[in-house]
Amino acid sequence: MRTLRHFHMADPIPARAGVGLKPEHYRDILDNRPDIGWFEVHAENYMEDGGPPHRYLSEIRERYPLSVHGVGLSIGGAGSLDLEHLARLKRVCDRYEPGLVSEHLAWSSHDGCYFNDLLPLPYTTETLARVCEHVDIVQSTLKRQILIENPSTYVDFAGAQMREIDFLGELAKRTGCGLLLDVNNVFVQATNHGFRAADYIDEFPLHLVQEIHLAGHAHDTDDDAAPLLIDAHGAPVADPVWSLFVQAIEKGGARPALIEWDNDIPDWERLHAEARRAEDFMKQGERSRGQAA
Amino acid sequence: MDKLLEAQGEFATAIRDFESPPPSSVARTPAGALPIRRFSVYRNNVVMSLTEVLEAYFPVVRRLVGDEYFRAMARFFIVTEPPATPVLSQYGAGFPAFIASFEPVSDLPYLADVALMEWLQQRAYHSPEGVPLTAEHLSQVNAEDVAALRLVFHPAARFLSSSSPVFSIWRTNTFDADVVPVGADAGPEAVLIVRPEMEVKTLLLQAGTAMFVDRLMQGATIGEAYESALEQDSAFDPAPALAALIELGALIEASSQPIKEATRSNGGSST
Description:
The complex is a heterodimer.
Chain A: E1 17-20, H1 26-32, E2 38-42, H2 52-61, E3 66-69, H3 83-96, E4 100-104, E5 107-110, E6 113-119, H4 125-142, E7 147-149, H5 164-175, E8 178-182, H6 183-193, H7 197-203, E9 209-215, E10 218-221, E11 227-230, H8 239-252, E12 257-260, H9 268-292
Parallel strand pairs in A: 1-2, 1-12, 2-3, 3-4, 4-7, 7-8, 8-9, 9-12
Antiparallel strand pairs in A: 5-6, 10-11
Helix pairs in contact in A: 1-2, 4-5, 6-8, 7-8, 8-9
Chain B: H1 3-16, H2 36-57, H3 59-65, H4 67-80, H5 95-100, H6 111-126, H7 135-139, E1 150-153, E2 158-162, H8 166-175, E3 189-194, E4 201-205, H9 207-217, H10 222-232, H11 238-248, E5 251-255
Antiparallel strand pairs in B: 1-5, 2-3, 3-4
Helix pairs in contact in B: 2-4, 3-4, 3-6, 3-8, 9-10
C-alpha cells in the first residue's frame, strides 16, 4: 500500500456537520456568519475563469473550512481519464486549498459525451483495475489523497464478481485513497438491491472513512412494483438514514458529516437546522460509543 | 480489457435512445424480465437534470414557448447535442443555433436571437474579471489624440445586433408580471451586455451607438467607429456614448496601439 503525503492540511475539515454550499445561500452566510463546521462545493461549479461564484466562494473560504467534491471526473469510465478536466480540478484545488477532495465510484462520460449522472459500474476485477489506475492518476496529479464515495445505483450487473463493500476496500488498499461513506446511498442500495443496510455499515472499513454524506431520497417502484429509492437530494434526511448514521459514528467515531440538499433547496435556516440535527445525532453516536468503550 | 468499454458504450447508447431496451450487461429481474423501469431512472436523471440546466440559462425562451414545450424542445436538444464537458455552465452554447434550425418553432423568428442574448448574459456572468477604465484615465489623453485611440472591452462585455426586437422581448418577459406584447412593428434591436462587478447588465443601444460599439469591439479607432456611426445616425455624438461605456464599466483599456486579437472581447452577432 502506497501512502500519500497531505500537502494542504492548513484547514482540516472538523468532525462536525457541514452543508453543500448553494448560490441561494451565499448572502445569508456572508451576512450572518452562521456557526457551522464547514462547507462543501461541487468542483464543476467553480471551473469558470471568473464571475460571482468565485467571488462568493473566496469570501466564504476565508471564514470556513472547505471540502471539494467532484461530480464529473468519471473515475469509473472505461476510457482514458479526461486529463483536461483533471487539470481543471487541480486549478480549483490550488485556488481554494480544500481540506478534503472527493469523487465517486461511478462513470459519467463516454466517447466525449458527458451524461451528468453517476452511472453504475459492474464490480469486476477489470473494473477494479481501471478505477485503481484512474485514482492513482488523480492522486499523483493533485499531489494528495482523495476520497471515493459509495454510490446509489438502480440496476444490477449480470457479470458482477464482488460486493461493493469489498470493491471499495480493495480500491482503498491498492491506491491509498480514503473513503467517503454516503449513508443515504447505503440505505438506497440496501433497498434497491436487497441487503441489510445495518450489515453494510457494520462491515464497512470505517477506519478509512474521512467524511460522511447525508441526504434525502425519493420513492419509486421497480419493474416488479417493489420499492426503488432514488438518490434525489431534495428532501430532509429520512429516519432510517439517521439511524445508520448513528450506527456508523458509534462504531467508527465522529466524522465530518455533510447535508446534501441540491433540489427543492430550502432557505438557509431550514438547511442549517438539518445540519444541527446531524450534530445532535453525531453526539448521540459518540455517547453510545463512549459507553460501549 | 475492453469489455467494460464496450458495455459502457452500449449503456450510453441506451440512455440516449429512449426506444431501445436496457443494455445487455444489466441483470434481468428475478422473473427474467428486462429491468425497464430501473434503467429508465438513468434516462430520466440525465434528461431532467440537463433540462433544468437549460431552464436556468434560458428563462425567457421558456416563458415564450411555455414550460411543456420548452421541456420537449430541450429533450430534443439534449439527445442530439449532449454536453461535451462536465462543466455545465458551458452547456447551451449550441441551443440558439438549435432553435434557429428547429422547424416546429420557425413561426417564432425572434426565438433564436432571444436564446442567444440569454446565452451571452450567462457567458458574461462567468467571464474573467477586469478592472474597469475610469473617466479620469481617459481625461489624461489630449483631445486631439482621442480619435486615434482603440478601446479594450471588459472580458465580460458582449454585443448582439439582432433583426428582432430582442431587448424589448427580453425586458417584458423578465420584469413584467403580465407580459406587454411587443408590437409587430418593433424593429431590429442591438444590445450591450456587461458585468463589471456582480451583476449582469443588459442595455439597449440606438442604431448609431450600436455601430460605434460594434466597430470599437472589432478593434477600430474611436475616429473610425465614429465615422461608421455617423453613417447610421447623422446626429450621433460620441462623447455621451463614450461616457456611458465608461460609466457602465464596459472598458478596461484605451490604447494608441492596435489591439491584439487575443485581448479583444468579441460578442455575438446574429445574421
